[in-house]
């Protein structure tokens, strides 16, 4: 896996350099708002969504430099969702990525505005980045894909279901529906936008990529639920056991710890099966699926 982690670092460095380019300068007004945006976006993170987007685009022979804007858009959208999810009116978390959440480091109003500004910046990048080498129809489809993944049929809807379900008993179908919106939608959109960045994507190949990302998106959430039990706060970079403390429905609660691990493994194999139509160019996608279910944070 050495080559894999070296490639991951290339992807991480690429998106972080591009993020610094697209984010408004912290020296420009309103300075506090721009500082809060930088604070949240550039905090150390796994960058799973940009990594997935890069790997998908490169499986279709898209140059790395022609994927930076799209990678920024999905990471910025993810950062917005984390800021808002952490708010006192939502999950009320004090720690994110190993340091105080945005509303703790600044204040609640600034955090809300930073999230709002980041959400619109993501769409601005997709709409205007000249290095996105696709036709107008594909660019518009990218914007539509990110919109759907972020709204009431995506992350926002998933968070609404999550908040409404605290203290409730959900069955496995309801839990999967919640997380396919809250976590899975943006992961799936990241792969789809990577595919839409190419000019040689057939409907069959696009469907395979979409299904692959759907399965790893659910597996990613199951692994998060497992780590909430098995890991610790310093490793996770956020409070360990927070789901348990809030009495949130989780996969281990429904299936038991062993059952949750078994389900994650089944989804992993389904995801890998979706890549059978691809050659060695999809090697990174296969390794990403492996990483998702074996990660420690």
Describe, in plain words, how this protein is organized in 3D:
- The protein has 297 residues and is mainly α.
- 70% of the residues lie in helices and 1% in strands.
- Strands 1-2 form a two-stranded antiparallel ribbon.
- Helix 4 (68-85) packs antiparallel against helix 6 and helix 8 packs across helix 9.
- The protein starts with a helix and ends with a helix.
Quick description:
Helices cover 70% and strands 1% of the residues. With 297 residues, it is mainly alpha-helical.
- Helix/sheet category: mainly alpha
Count of extended strands: 2
Largest sheet: 2 strands, antiparallel
What ranges have pLDDT less than 50 throughout 5 or more consecutive residues?
A: none
Q: Whole-Å distance between the termini?
A: 17 Å
| Amount of helix | over 70%
Gross geometry: globular
The helix/strand order is HHHHEEHHHHHHHHHHH
Specify Rg, calculated over alpha carbons: 18 Å
How much is the average pLDDT? 92
- For the biggest β-sheet, the strand order reads 1-2
Q: Helical stretch count?
A: 15
- Strand fraction: under 5%
Structure keywords:
two-stranded antiparallel ribbon, 297 residues
Topology:
Blueprint: H1 2-22, H2 31-41, H3 48-59, H4 68-85, E1 95-96, E2 99-100, H5 102-105, H6 108-128, H7 136-150, H8 155-165, H9 172-182, H10 184-196, H11 203-230, H12 233-236, H13 242-245, H14 251-274, H15 283-294
Antiparallel strand pairs: 1-2
Helix pairs in contact: 1-4, 2-6, 3-4, 3-10, 3-15, 4-6, 4-10, 7-10, 8-9, 10-11, 11-14, 11-15, 14-15
